[in-house]
Amino acid sequence: MPTHVPDIVIGRLPLYLRALEHLLKEGREITSSQELGERLGYSAAQIRKDLSFFGEFGKQGSGYRIGYLAQELRKILKVDREWPVVVVGVGDLGHALVRYAGFKPKGFRIVAAFDNDPAKIGQQVGSLVVQDSRLIPEEVKRLGVQIAIIATPASAAQEVADTLVAAGIRAIVNYAPISVKVPAGVRIQYVDPAVQLQRLTYYL
Questions:
Q1: Are residues 122 and 189 in the same domain?
Q2: CA distances (Å), 71 to each of 23, 27, 61, 68, 105, in order?
Q3: Phi and psi at residue 3, in whole multiples of 5°?
Q4: Are residues 63 and 113 in the same domain?
Q5: Partners of residue 149 on adjacent β-strands
Q6: Do 120 and 190 fall into the same domain?
Q7: Domain containing 60: what range?
Q8: Which of its termini does the chain have fewer beta carbons within 10 Å around, N or C?
């Protein structure tokens, strides 16, 4: 696996995989960088350049075999397996994340949910029972989890992140509207719908 791939390229690979999966559902077998580009809003040259970081997946003039390329992208992204994930914070957003059915087809399964609100601890959310946040260290180790989602208020996010990292979490998706500090070797991705809306309103 190459080690010099820009993060922006890694960020586009799931979009390529999603487009390929849609093509497979349409019964297609072959596609081209031109067609993928038209579906995703990227140039064909950009798609070819991104894929070239990982090898040769098609031949000029004959395109890509969709099933094969999708399989290879799953291997590259390491979603050719199922990753256990924990959610911390079971308010409205966390509740929706725990119940969201779209994670499993993409290679992820929510295996535990935590909150520090006594009114929420013990509640059934989907197939899970909300656990006390104080159990995070032992449960993360017991379940062998490396990925967590933070869906707490901003005021609690840093403390939660510290707890998760100390427990062995190596990748975090943070929905809390604040930046948190994590040590080198821990990846964090921020998701803030309000920020995306503000980005859009610039253009209106």
A1: yes
A2: 13, 16, 21, 5, 14
A3: -105, 0
A4: no
A5: 87, 173
A6: yes
A7: 7-77
A8: C
